[in-house]
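User: Quick one: structure for sequence A, then sequence B.

Assistant: Sequence A:
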Amino acid sequence: MKYKDIIKDIKSKNFKNLYLFYGRETYLLDNIIKVFKDSLNSSLLDFNCSILDGREITMDLLLSNVETLPFMDDRRIIIVKDFELLKNKRKNFTEKDESDLISYLKNIPQQSTLVFIVYGDIDKRRKLAKGLIKQGIVLNCDKLDSTELFKWVKNKFKKENVNIDAEQIIYFLNIEDYQNKNSNKTLSDLENQIIKIASFTGNGNVVTKEIIDKLSSKKIENDIFKLIDAIGNKNSSLSMKILNDMILEGESPLMILNMIGRQFRIIIQSKQLKKMGYSSTVISQKINVHPYVVSKALNQGMNFDNEIIVKILNEVLNADFSIKNGLIKDTLALEIIISKFCV
């Protein structure tokens, strides 16, 4: 079955007893959870929907949830996120537990729907995975294909009440590079970008190529490259100018902070893998980023030893915590980090 068909069935309360959804597209996986929850009576949700941590769950806890009768409804939904046995791990489940669970999947109570959600790949060699594929509805939630992606983007712009023609949608998708196999962008990233473009464009107005260029994530990424280059060259005034320009253009200081952290993580990973003898192409595949980003990271890494990078990453982590807990203003936190490592 296709994703949209499964969603349609769930919304129509045409439930199956067993599902497995896995893959890299977290937006689709999170949306599935939402659709399952929305299918139930909201006032009785706490009684009839259980979301369990698959990394900590035991056999007894899983079975007790599946066997529990729904309360004042005809359906109870049990969602298990990141179940350890599907990721080739065995913390709380013995081999006998796994064998018993496979047998149990054939006899799930009619009033129960058991849903496994795995963020990332599953180990299809495992008996449990084979049992799920045989007994239930299984779907790999990977990146949307070109046709589905175009429709999705078009609908998102429409929902934001701005006008955009097919040519500009295609241009937007080319700029965002979502479908590149080395890209780690998700639909959540595209949605955030669409919201930003729509907000800048204004209700009822037309999205143009110029607006897309002005707000494109590639421009933001290039600005982050420039900022880290300036920090590496100890150019405090240029670093502050780049930061202030980004904020004036409407970029969130917290987003800038997170992108700085992301780039320094890429730098230290690239340096370590390069030291192990891997080429830039192989490194890009291993850390799932574009080869250009790896090339840029290796060049930038020449200005930072690993000890400094670790210190910067710790500063970013501490700043993120302080900002989110109201201990410091976001812009000030960024300025402090830049000042500290430009000396």
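Sequence B:
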Amino acid sequence: MAFKVKFWGVRGSIACPSPRHIGFGGNTSCIEVSAGGEHIIFDAGTGIRSLGQWMLKKDVKHAHLMLSHTHWDHINGFPFFTPAFLPDRSFEIMAGHVEEDQGGIRKVLSGQMAQPFFPVPLEAMRGKLTFSDFKAGDVFDLSENVRVKTMPLNHPNGATGYRIEHRGKAMCYVTDTEHVPGKPDENVLALIEGADLVIYDSTYTEEEFPEKVGWGHSTWEEGIRLCRAANVRMLAIFHHDPTHDDAFMEALEIKARETWSGAIIARENMRINLL
């Protein structure tokens, strides 16, 4: 069975549909993973709309939607995810950060689609939707050969990092998270240890970071340090700041590759095959 990753949205904070962002992509966070016959979607930023259109063409009937958290840039594509409106499709929607007093992930997503914010309610989605709340740190199996490990991340209102393991390979989705300079995040190190691919919150540069402390994001430099320390094979620099246009990202790519040969820049529509 294959183990493939595709980037449908790589931007953080807000979508950037401008000519200056088209090279790396302007859609917000959405990653598709195919592993052992399971379809996994990480986050429902604006990139999930295009993913949904592709799923219709390929007649994909079922997927697991795993949310890192529910800040707008990670969920505001969900109301435009066409497959969820079709009665012959089914989706398990999962989150590990929602507090009990918030009523669970179903209530959070329903609130986003409630008036006066959106005209079409969650109940209009005729697909079979199941909502699963877990605790970040839990481990569970999607099948006999696809395991999911989770870990809490350092982000306002909470966030969850994920690790997918299949046939001896592993990929990790680690966003959104803020590091403490000089103190590697032990949760992240444990989650990514020995992974073949780590997709990491690299919103800022180290020069930008001091003015953004408390905003919940990290840097590409910290991503490299963590991946080196954890014996990771490849780092995908991800969650690009909307002020970082193509020219900025091209220069960043050169710096990152000079710093560590295992670093790449995530681009919209990029594919990575792990098996």
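Residues 3-273 form a domain with the Metallo-beta-lactamase; Chain A fold (CATH 3.60.15.10). The mean pLDDT is 98.

User: Thanks, that's what I needed.
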